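Design request, tokens follow.
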């Protein structure tokens, strides 16, 4: 049971990030940002406008909250990462192992900071 939940959390984190990474150019990335940004705003607005007595509590509510925060975080980090790579590729910067390591560390820092920030907001 716990292994399945951990796998589900990882999928919530990996799928939107992976979709952002396969965007071939800036136009596709902008379209992805508009679509998923609107989705994230709508979901957040729905959460905020739901009355407290209808929100629920317990494990399922916490699970949904964490899954939503992972979803938002992976979208934002994926967009930032892909935009950075597209910008560096447009300026003819050679992509070597140190750049990849720096991007991975940037992703980890952003994931931790944004996830904690979203959990505080919720």
């Amino acid at each position: 049971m716990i292994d399945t939940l951990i796998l589900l959390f990882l999928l919530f984190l990996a799928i939107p990030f992976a979709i952002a990474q396969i965007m071939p150019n800036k136009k596709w990335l902008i379209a992805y940002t508009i679509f998923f940004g609107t989705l994230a705003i709508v979901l957040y607005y729905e959460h905020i406008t739901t009355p407290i007595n209808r929100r629920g509590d317990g494990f399922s509510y916490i699970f949904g909250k964490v899954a939503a925060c992972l979803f938002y975080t992976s979208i934002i980090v994926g967009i930032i990462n892909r935009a950075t790579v597209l910008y560096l590729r447009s300026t003819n910067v050679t992509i070597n192992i140190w750049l990849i390591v720096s991007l991975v560390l940037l992703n980890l820092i952003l994931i931790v900071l944004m996830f904690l920030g979203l959990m505080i907001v919720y």
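Comment from the thread starter after seeing the answer: thanks! The helical segments are 2-21, 26-49, 52-55, 59-90, 97-121.
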